[in-house]
Amino acid sequence: MIRLSPALGPLTPRQRWRRARLQAYSWTLTGAYRLGTLNPAIWRMVARGYHPALDWVAARHARVACQFAAVDVPAYRHFLNTRDAGRARLLADFPETTKQNYAGAYDEASRCQEGRLHRPGVIVDESSGSSGKPYNWVRGPRELQGIYRNAAGYIGLVFPGRRLFVINAYSMGAWATGTTTGAAMARIAMVKNTGPDLEKIADTLEHFGPGYDYVVAAYPPFLKHLRDRLDEAGFPWEDYRIRGMVGGEGMTEALRDYLEERFEEVRSGYGASDLTIGMGAESGFSVRLRKRLATDQRLRDALLGPGEQRLPMIFHYNPLETFLEVNADGELLCTINTKSCLQPKLRYNVGDEARLHPLAEVRRALGEDDYAAMWTDERMNLPLLFLFGRKDSTISYMGANLYPQDVEYGLYQGNPYAAAINRFCLSLEELPGLEYRPVINLEVRGEVDHGVLAEICRKGVVAHLSAVSRDFAESLKEDPTAADLRIKVFGLGEGPFARLTKMKNVYLVKDA
Question: The whole model's pTM is what?
């Protein structure tokens, strides 16, 4: 695919005047935000003192960011003109950008402010390629410093400790999460960048001993592998204080419960290589709210909509820095407000389904007493993002959509062989008579009876789907063969897993 490389070209006197005014306004707001992240203690104060009236300021800044890019970013200027949106004024008038219509259609330089890419301190990250093709994303030094401050402020709030020791188990390659996490955590903690190496982490814990407040940062499945590896070695968990910080993909409460049998607590963050790291983050309140949603249909209907059976991740987010919207299709749009963003992200649709709710709305839905009882020490007053995940990560079966998170619940809840499961993915299998059945492919390690494991997992997934999916439960009543979910068990690196070499799990495969 040939990518366009438009130049900024000369600006008219009117455009130059407009550019100067918008730049001054944007830098003023960006500077004010930056003051709130200079120190983790100030960051905590801002997160706890956020007022809903600031939503208007955030929305206005998002509109200014789009207006400024329309005269300052060559690719965005060309993008708007080809869609007859060059004179857009309201935020809703600016068209959505996506990986396909914008990031993949224009080269890196033309998507930068002033069309200038090469500057000292620019870091090039690479997405994992879960969408089929790795993409390069660039971030400037001012932008990175803001990301570091936000991440450090959050960790200091959620994982307090006088002797913080962060073990960074994300990949140390060109992917944004690993290198950014290491640099950010070094602001407030001692850090060892082990990468996803189980033996190095085990050696590190043994070498430095139990005198630290450990935080292991990793993808959720890797944290499970670490728990299982340390259990096998007879690790003295009771002597240590170890907490988990995960990101990169969704996590079920079943997996969290499994991890928190050993880790003191596990919290998740939300970000995207396309956009920024740490767009949203969990608190004790958001975790309790999610667990409540799993059992309270009234609350689920109020916050997610009537009949919604999926259980989203729930994150706090700061609209002053990442202004979020949800379009008519229920997809999340993000505008990075800060002027320090080298490649402005403007109403960018990453493909995630979501809902947004102010904290006051959640408070009304819960009721005063329940709301007060769910608060924890973090007390973040930021609005909430309810994230369902990527829209294309499902398999349709018997009129119901099967989501990887629902499958994961069924695999882990009450399963005595959960430690043997390394990872899983979904596929469809064609049967005689042009009939299809979903297949749950399991990669297992160690000595375990494949037949016994497959049957336990099948029953667990069917039971969970019956409980959370009305469509599946109804299909099961009408046709008992709907319970015929196929489970295929493979050894390490066998079957479809021979092709899945990325660090982030791939949950939907073809031709398994």
Answer: 0.81
Tokens 């336990």, residue?
A: 456
Query: Collapsing DSSP states into helix, strand and coil, what is residue 476?
Result: helix
**Top-level class of domain 397-497:** alpha beta
DSSP one-letter string for 404-451: HHHHHHHHHTT-TTGGGEEEEEEEEEEETTTEEEEEEEEEE-SS--HH
Q: Which pLDDT belongs to residue 434?
A: 47
Whole-angstrom distance, CA of residue 259 vs CA of residue 34:
35
1-391 falls under which CATH superfamily? ANL, N-terminal domain (3.40.50.12780)
Residues 366 and 401 sit within 8 Å (Cβ to Cβ): no
- 132 — pLDDT class (breaks 50, 70, 90): very low
Q: What would the mean pLDDT of 23-35 be, rounded to a whole number?
A: 74
Query: Distance between CA atoms of 492 and 507, rounded to whole angstroms?
Result: 16
Q: Residue 70 has which token pair?
A: 């329309």
Which two three-digit tokens encode residue 391? 């829209």
Closest to 308 in 3D by CA, of 318, 300, 299, 316: 300
β-pairing verdict for 241-246 and 123-126: unpaired
Domain ranges of the chain: 1-391, 397-497
**Phi/psi class of residue 350: alpha, beta or left (left: φ > 0; alpha: ψ in -120 to 50)?**
alpha
CA-CA distance, 503 to 181, in Å (whole number)?
16
In terms of DSSP bridges, do strands 395-397 and 486-490 run parallel, antiparallel, or are they unpaired? Answer: unpaired
